[in-house]
Amino acid sequence: MARKSVQARQAKRERLVAKFAERRAQLKAEGDYEGLDKLPKNASPVRLKNRCGITGRGKGYIRFFGISRVKFRELASDGKIPGVKKSSW
Question: Can you give the pTM of this predicted structure?
Fold first, then answer.
């Protein structure tokens, strides 16, 4: 599981991106790059990282499910993800 501080930092970035989304779009449409420069760096959506919704793990993220590969395997093995089953051949 990721450290709580890492998860908190990510949550703070997500709040900032949501807060400044409209303003960023307006400044970009106007071509006011100096105004964009004055916004907080963490208000840029590029600085967000895909993280597991359960553990906060940053690597091995499966976008379709929104969880990491480790949690995906656990949940799939337990039959808790509908439509997913362990394959064998």
Answer: 0.78
